[in-house]
Specification:
The chain is of the alpha+beta class. It contains nine helices and 20 strands. A hairpin with a 5-residue loop joins strand 5 (about 75-80) and strand 6 (about 85-90). Helix 8 crosses helix 9. The longest helix has 29 residues, at about 315-340. The structure holds flavin-adenine dinucleotide. Flavin-adenine dinucleotide binds near residues 19, 180, 289 and 293.
C-alpha cells in the first residue's frame, strides 16, 4: 500500500559524491529529495583514492565541502612508458598554481560532502522501485523504512553510478582490472605523482599522506593472482612493473575494480537527466571521472537555479548541449590513452616515446596536458 504522495522539485537518485555535490549546489534553490539505496557512510570501506583537479578543489570549496586535511598536494607529474624511451614532466611551479591537483580518499571526499547535506532531504537506505514520467512531472515509487511511498518530482536526476549495459548504454570492456592499494616507499614522495604506461595497462602512483595510492592496471586474467599474492610478492611485482626510480617497502590491503567505458547515448529524457558515472563511466587513467562528473553537477545546477520548471525540455536540452564538448573530450582523452599505451607493438612504442618527448619539449603541448590536469576542459572551452 502506498502511504502518501510527497512532492519536490528535484529528486536525485544516488547520493554518492556527485549526487551530494549537486544537492549542495542547489541548496538555495529548488526543493530536493536525495535518495540512495545504501545507508549513509556505506563508503567507509571504499579503497579508492581520487586525483582531484585544482578546478575541482575550487568547486568543492564553493560547496563548503573541501577537506584540506584529507588532501595531499600533487606538485609534479612524471609520465613515462615501460620498456621505451621518452618521458614528460609537468610541474605546478610552471603554472603559478600551488598544486596541479590533490589526492583524497573517496571516503574522505564523501564524508566532507555528507557533512553538509541536510538530513531532511535524505532518503537512505531507500530503493527506487519504479519511475513513471509524465508531461508535467515524474512519479517515483520508493521502498523506504518498511513502507512504500510515492514521490512526485518535476525532474529526476540520475546519479547512481555505473549504468547497467542496455540499448541506451554503449559499453567497451577494456578487459582490464585496476588493483588499488596504499604502499610505502623508502624515500618520501615529495608530492610527485607517477603515471607509467606498461603493456599490461597504466600504473599510477599518487602521493597520499605519507604513502602512495597505487592504481595498478592489469589484464583481467592476471587480477585474481595479483590479489592473492602475499605483501612481499605483491611489492616485488609492483617493483618489476614500475622500475627502479622508487623502492617499495610496505603495502596495505588490496582491492580490484573491473574497467569498462560506459557511455549513455542521451544525457536527458522526459523529466530525467543523467550525471557523473551514470552518464559516463571512464577508465581511471589520468583521473578524469569524478572531475568531469563534478563539472556535470555544477553546470546542471547553474542551469536549474531560478527556473520555475527544472524539468522543462528546453532546460534539459540546454544542459545536454552545454556538456557535449567537455564530455567528448574527456572520453576521447582517457579512451585513447588506454588504447594507444596498453600494448607492446614496437612501432607504437617508438611513436609513444616520440609523443612523450614532444609533450616534454613542446611547451604548447605540455600546457594543453597540464591545463587538463589543473582545470579539466575549462581552459579550452
Ligand atoms: C580504481 C578507480 C580509481 C579512480 N580514480 C579517479 C581519480 O583519480 N580521479 C577521478 O576524478 N575519478 C576517479 N575515478 C572515478 C570516480 O570514482 C567516479 O567518477 C566517481 O566515484 C563517480 O561518482 P558518482 O557519484 O557518479 O558515482 P558513485 O561514486 O558510484 O556513487 C553512486 C551512488 O549511487 C548509489 N546507488 C547506486 N545504485 C542506486 C540505485 N539504484 N538507487 C539509489 N542509489 C543508488 C550508490 O550507493 C552510491 O552512493 C576512479 C574510479 C576507480 C574505479
Amino acid at each position: 500500500m502506498i502511504e502518501n504522495t510527497e512532492a519536490v522539485d528535484i529528486a536525485i537518485v544516488g547520493a554518492g559524491p556527485l549526487g551530494m555535490a549537486l544537492a549542495l549546489a542547489l541548496e538555495r534553490g529548488p526543493s530536493i529529495a536525495l535518495i540512495d539505496s545504501r545507508a549513509r557512510g556505506a563508503w567507509a570501506d571504499d579503497p579508492r583514492a581520487l586525483a582531484l583537479a585544482h578546478g575541482s578543489r575550487q568547486l568543492l570549496e564553493r560547496l563548503g565541502a573541501w577537506n584540506s586535511e584529507a588532501a595531499t598536494l600533487i606538485r609534479e607529474i612524471h609520465v613515462s612508458q615501460r620498456g621505451g624511451f621518452g618521458r614528460t614532466r609537468i610541474a605546478a611551479d610552471d603554472y603559478g598554481t600551488p598544486a596541479l591537483g590533490y589526492v583524497m580518499r573517496y571516503r574522505d571526499l564523501a564524508d566532507a560532502l555528507a557533512a553538509r547535506v541536510p538530513a531532511a532531504s535524505l532518503f537512505a537506505p531507500c530503493s527506487v522501485e519504479a519511475i513513471e514520467t509524465g508531461e508535467e512531472s515524474a512519479t517515483l515509487t520508493l521502498a523506504h523504512e518498511g513502507a512504500t511511498r510515492s514521490l512526485r518530482a518535476k525532474l529526476v536526476v540520475h546519479a547512481e553510478g555505473m549504468p547497467a549495459a542496455g540499448p541506451e548504454v554503449r559499453v567497451r570492456d577494456y578487459q582490464q582490472q585496476a588493483i588499488v592499494a596504499e604502499v610505502r616507499t623508502r624515500l618520501p614522495h615529495g608530492h610527485r605523482a607517477w603515471e607509467r604506461f606498461t603493456p599490461d595497462g597504466p600504473l599510477a602512483l599518487l602521493p597520499l599522506g605519507e604513502s602512495y595510492a597505487v592504481v595498478f592496471t592489469v589484464p583481467s586474467d592476471k587480477a585474481a593472482s595479483l590479489l592473492a599474492l602475499g605483501d612481499d610478492d605483491f611489492l616485488a611485482t609492483l617493483q618489476a612493473q614500475f622500475g627502479k626510480r622508487l623502492e617499495f617497502v610496505a603495502s596495505g590491503p588490496r582491492a580490484s575494480f573491473p574497467l569498462t567505458l560506459r557511455l549513455r547515448a542521451q544525457l536527458t529524457g522526459p523529466r530525467q537527466v543523467w550525471i557523473g558515472n551514470s552518464a559516463q563511466t571512464l577508465h581511471p587513467v589520468s583521473g578524469q571521472g569524478f572531475n568531469l562528473g563534478l563539472r556535470d553537477a555544477w553546470q546542471l545546477a547553474a542551469g536549474l537555479l531560478d527556473r520555475p520548471d527544472p524539468g522543462a525540455p528546453a532546460t534539459l536540452a540546454g544542459y545536454a548541449r552545454g556538456r557535449r564538448i567537455d564530455r567528448r573530450g574527456s572520453v576521447a582523452f582517457t579512451d585513447s590513452l588506454v588504447r594507444i599505451f596498453s600494448n607492446d607493438l614496437p612501432p607504437l612504442r617508438v611513436a609513444r616515446g616520440l609523443g612523450l618527448l614532444a609533450v616534454d619539449l613542446c611547451p604548447p603541448l605540455r600546457h594543453f596536458v597540464a591545463r587538463r590536469m589543473i582545470w579539466g576542459a575549462r581552459a579550452w572551452l
